[in-house]
Amino acid sequence: DKGQYRHFMAKEIAEQPEVVGHTLTRFVDMTSGRISLPAGADFDFSRLDRLAISACGTAYYAGLVARYWFEKFARLPVDIDIASEFRYREPPLTPGGLALMISQSGETADTLATLRHCRAQGMKIGAVVNVPTSTIAREADVVFPTTAGVEVGVASTKAFTCQLAVLAALAIKAGRDRKVLSEADEARLVASLIEVPRLMAETLHLEPEIEKLASAFAKAQDVLYLGRGTSYPIALEGALKLKEISYIHAEGYAAGELKHGPIALVDENVPVVVLAPFDVLFEKTASNMQEVAARGGKIVLITDAEGAAHAGETFATLVVPKAYAFVSPLIYAVPIQLLAYHTAVFMGTDVDQPRNLAKSVTVE
Ligand code: M6R
User: Fold this and answer.
1) Measured on CA atoms in the order 206, 211, 213, 214, is the torsion positive or negative?
2) Which of 18, 153, 298, 318 could pair with 271 in a Cys bridge, judged by C-beta atoms 3.0 to 4.6 Å apart?
3) Who contacts 309 (Cβ-Cβ below 8 Å, separation ≥6)?
4) Beta strands of 3-113 (E only): which ranges?
5) Ligand 1 centroid to 205 CA: how many Å?
6) C-alpha span between 285 and 291 (Å, rounded)
């Protein structure tokens, strides 16, 4: 039931504060302010040498964000692959190591094939899944559930941010298990994580402003998305969302990579969405943004109030609430979803059922 919404995607975007909050209650003990994994999923990360993550599409981008978290908070090296590539790369796997699958549907054939491959190599299988009765959930040793509820829109939105919430909690837990994080560190990270639903709700208020950008985006042939650090996977996700539902060609790049080629594409017809929270990486990203501006690119900057104050001239600046750097991917996911959504609505495409795509891809 779409309720008051025109599309399931709109409803699912709007539901995020609630479902991310719900997902977090399963992973955080609100009284102690510490991570507490759900019953049956109390995995101990202390003895791992590496973590191997596999997933497809949007779930893969959640994994890319998680790599930064596991490496930073738990000093745990992460290998991450697109599931359809994983087996053919023939990576050396450690028996007894953990292979982590991420999947909304739990039925994605490529991810399932990787799960079975890893199991055959003697690895333990963890799965971040949204459908608890799915094949991937059934075949995994440990299930870390997202509780996003049923996601109908083919373009994944709330499942993605719930995946990020679970992965953030797991990275903190890994940091505790591996004695990288002190109790105070954990408390600080958890405190910033439980602020996320409120910050997401505030971010949703940008919708009218974002809707106004739709006509400019609808005219574009190509759109670039740039980000550094954990904003880089969000740039990839922004480009995927726009491609899927508006059919406009879009690419996400690490902001520093622009000058190594893609800047050749930039002219006054190319909107460039820059994801840049005011953190330690801001100055660098801002200078990449200047390179784009110098070539006439239409910059849409997504940042917080401080970032907006430090940025030069842009085509549009969307100001999201200030958040701890750690949780910014969950916040910045919201405006890129809304931007794709309103562009597609403006163009009149079938938002919930885009051409050529299926909600769950059960062939390899
Ligand atoms: O169900 P899964 O999470 O395993 O699906 C993976 C991808 O097929 C999925 O994320 C796809 O990329 C979405 N259409 C993205 O919006």
Assistant:
1) positive
2) 298
3) none
4) 28-29, 34-35, 51-55, 78-82, 98-103
5) 26
6) 10
User: What is the torsion angle, in degrees rounded to the nearest 10, for the CA atoms of residue 197, residue 246, residue 229 and residue 334?
Assistant: -10
Pocket perturbation via mutation, ligand 1, pick of 61, 105, 135, 244 by most ligand atoms within 8 A of CB? 105
Closest C-alpha to ligand 1, atom 16: 155
Task: Round to whole Å and give the CA distance between 124 and 135.
Answer: 16
Give dist(CA 70, CA 63) in Å, integer: 10
3-class secondary-structure state, position 129? strand
Distance in angstroms (rounded) separating the CA atoms of residues 315 and 344 = 20
List CB contacts of 32: < 8 A, sequence separation 6 or more: none
Q: Name the token pair of 314.
A: 């842009």
359 catalytic per annotation: yes
Phi then psi for residue 285, to 5 deg, are -65, -40
Q: Which two tokens stand for residue 176?
A: 């505790």
Pinpoint the alpha helices (H) of 247-327: 282-294, 305-310
State the first-to-last Cα distance of the chain, in angstroms, to the nearest integer: 31
- What whole-number distance in Å separates Cα of residue 278 and Cα of residue 283? 8
Q: What backbone torsions phi and psi does residue 214 show, to the nearest 5 degrees?
A: -55, -40
pLDDT along the chain (364 residues), means of 10: 94 98 97 94 95 97 98 97 89 89 97 96 96 98 97 95 98 98 97 97 98 96 96 98 96 94 90 96 92 90 97 94 96 98 95 87 84
